[in-house]
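Worked problem 6 (solution included).
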Amino acid sequence: MKLKLVESKKEEIPIIAEIYKTEFSKPPYNEPWTIRKAVDKMRFFIKYYDLYTIKADKEIVGFICVNPLFMCPGEVAFGEELAIKEEFQNKGIGTWTLKEIFEIYRKKGFKRFMGVLEEGARVVSLYNRLNIKPSKKYKLIEKKLK
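Solution. The predicted structure is:
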């Protein structure tokens, strides 16, 4: 299987949005995405962040979104979203994708890659393999708004 990571094109948004909707609707996320909301989110990502399409033998199998302006612009590349179609998971594609992303942003001069990890997420084992650890400096905070 030949893998390729490319900057996403606007015409790929419906495919990427469907992957997003499908994969994030499953446990442990159980997010109530509609295709319309997913398309809107991908349009936002492609306009303001770095959105990459993951291809396996020319088929779109997933995407990754990185926010290069999140904390310290030019220093921290913040991983917003990563999703891979279920039938392509556990085949090394996520590992390959993150290694490619690390190299892209290292070459751009970034010092760190960060992201948010949801408790129980399936991506935990991938992060462990790549030695991605919880931040010692930053904690995610939350307040429910009624």
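Discussion: The beta strands are 3-7, 50-56, 59-67, 76-84, 112-115.
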